[in-house]
TrEMBL record:
A Pfam family reported for this protein in Swiss-Prot or TrEMBL: Lipase_GDSL
Designated name of the protein: GDSL esterase/lipase
GO molecular function annotation: hydrolase activity, acting on ester bonds
Highest taxon of the lineage: Eukaryota
Alphabetical keyword list: Glycoprotein
InterPro entries: GDSL (IPR001087), SGNH_hydro_sf (IPR036514)
Protein family (similarity comment): Belongs to the 'GDSL' lipolytic enzyme family.
Amino acid sequence: METALFMFGTIGGNDYNYAFFEGKPIEEVRNMVPQVVNTIMLGVKFTKPKFLTNVSAAYDESRCLKQMNDFAKYHNQQLQQAIHDLQQQSPNATVVYADYYNAYHFLLEHAKSHGLDTEGACCGECVGMMELGCVRIQSDT
C-alpha cells in the first residue's frame, strides 16, 4: 500500500453541502473537516477489491471490468445529455461537468509518462460510479 495510487472523487463534498444547505455557519462546517478527512483516510486504508472475477473475458485491455466500465459510460452519457438539455433551457447558465472517468482512463493509458506502473496492479475497486484499475507508483528502491 505504500506505493499504491488511490483515486477518490468528491468524497466529503456532500457532507459539507448538506451542512451549508441546512444553514450551518462556516465555522461549524469547518469543524467537520477533521472527521470527514479521517473517514476518507479510513476508506483508503481499508479499500479492497470488491468486484474481482477470474473470468478473463470480463476484463478490458486495461484490466478493468467491462461491465462496470459500461455502466459508468452509460451514467456519464445520460448525465451529459441532461446537462446539454439544461444548457438549452438556460442558455445564460454555466454548467461545469468534471469527467473523472475519461480523465482517469487518460492517466491509465499514459501511466508510464506520469511515473506510474500498471503491470501486476490490481483492478476491481468501484470508486463512486467508476470501475478503475489500480496503479502503483514506480519506485527505484
